[in-house]
Amino acid sequence: MAFVLTTAALFSQNDVNSNSFFPKKSFTEPQKKGNFFFFWGWNKEIYSNSDIHFSGNNYDFTLHNVVATDKQSKFDPNIYFGITNITIPQYNYRIGYYINDHYSISAGWDHMKYVMVNDQSSNIDGSIHVGSQYDGDYDNQDFKIAQNFLRFEHTDGLNYLNTEVRRSDMVMSNKFLQVNINEGIGAGVLYPRTNTTLLNNPRYDEFHVAGFGVAAVGSVQLSFFKQFFIQSEIKAGYINMPDIRTTMHESDIASQRFEFFQYNILFGGQFKLHGK
């Protein structure tokens, strides 16, 4: 991120009017209307704590302020660039179209991963009566989330399928390099594959539409020869999943809401769909 911002600043330095915050546009912006674009890259997440509510036959309880992390794969060229392995890390891809020279619409898939920290301390409300060592009635009691009680992950993954509207503004351009600032908003659905082991139930991990999300995004893009680009972006959003499957029984569900902060590094291209 620092590399992209610094590069953008250096290349636009000579165009800055000393009496104005904004650079002088002494260049002609390439026309973007009608351009198709796509990108692929990788993400890193931070999640807020969340309350997770579990309900099913003979249990109904809530775990409070649950801590979770992401699960980015360690760098390995065979994983990050191997054709058969590129979907293993946390990744983003997007395809879009410029409806005019500044605004684009796009659809994308943010493949994030969410892992509840095992053996953490929490508080619990509710009741459990399933014939386990954890049976009882709870009223905001201290509780250790042991692995034989619950393992809870959206690791294949926390899939956010979304559409976005973005605005792009060029701050510098020459024959070889263009620097763009982009910002936008989006919304979509969550389609996680939740890996759960709950109480005495066997492990369960089927894909399921679980809820929705909204997010805002900002980015700096370095475009080369007006066709290929490297992009660094940050995204902040809100996720609400009221219908998370936890076991093979449809009556067993969980729900949670949380915020996320995402950092992405992306590689892509843009091409004219029709005309010159």
Question: Care to give the gist of this entry?
Answer:
This protein has 276 residues and is mostly beta strands. The protein has one domain: Porin, CATH 2.40.160. The chain is built from two helices and 14 strands, in the order αββββαββββββββββ.
Features:
Porin, mainly beta, disordered N terminus
Structural write-up:
By secondary structure, the protein is mostly beta strands. It has one domain (37-115, 148-272): Porin (Beta Barrel). 5% of the residues lie in helices and 59% in strands. The protein contains two helices and 14 strands. A hairpin with a 7-residue loop joins strand 7 and strand 8 (136-144). The chain is elongated and about 70 Å long. It starts with a helix and ends with a strand. The model is unreliable at 1-26 (pLDDT under 50).
Instruction: Give the integer mean of the pLDDT values.
Output: 88
Instruction: Please mark out the parts with pLDDT under 50 across 5 or more consecutive residues, or reply none.
Output: 1-26
Helices and strands, in N-to-C order?
HEEEEHEEEEEEEEEE
Number of helices: 2
> Would you count the extended β strands for me?
14
Helix content estimate: under 10%
Structural class: mainly beta
- Spatial extent as radius of gyration: 23 Å
- In spatial order, strands of the major sheet run 1-5-6-9-10-12-13-14
Q: In whole angstroms, how far apart are the ends?
A: 33 Å
Quaternary form: single chain
The major sheet is characterized as: 8 strands, antiparallel, barrel
CATH fold-level topology: Porin
